[in-house]
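idk why but the lab printer keeps eating my pages so im just putting this in chat instead. protein + TZP:
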Amino acid sequence: MRVTAARMRELLKVYFILGSNNCRKNPLEVIAEAIEGGITLFQYREKGSGALVGEEKVKLARAIQELCQQHRIPFIVNDDIELALALNADGVHIGQEDAPAAVVREKIGDKILGVSVHTREQAYEAIRQGADYLGIGPIFATTTKEDAKEAAGTTLIKALREDGLTVPIVGIGGITPDNARVVMAAGADGVSVITAISLADSPVQSTRKLYQAVHSQPEG
Ligand code: TZP
Ligand code: MG
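predcted complex ->
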């Protein structure tokens, strides 16, 4: 059975993304702390300079998946459909440069499918092709993604909500405990972050703060 929209919205609340090159210490330690702090979903995104490949990538993926399973945090793989299938991951996340969402949906069956979109057209197309949630960003400036587009703010999230679209949406890019509320107020169901947790002095504390920001009442 496909994930329900209601469950997907809950999973997106504090969505932590990480690859080995996003942290200064052992990724497993960082993820353990993030889990302790309250992340709701995890994505393994092993890419960019210094990223692991081949057996090393698979080995780390397996270790992270095991940790996530112990704590019942769904484990999503970025881009690498074959790895997701080989590990029986809970889902995959793809961008516009990857295979079309419909092709990926066909391959992964009922696993969770997330798609990054940058325009209204891309958003509707991703939904039509079977996305369970949309990733929208970069909302704020980020240096984490080497080929990231310019910060686009919350315009697209707001536009889709004004259209009446209820599909689960997560914001990404430069999100921190201090600006997470802005993303939620625009209509996102949650926030996805890399460095706000992976490079925090205390990943536990930073995750707790993100969790609080996402669950706090909108200002006004
Ligand atoms: N896609 C858009 S921005 C981004 C990705 C993967 C990087 C987000 O990283 P950070 O450190 O949370 O800004
Ligand atoms: Mg991709």
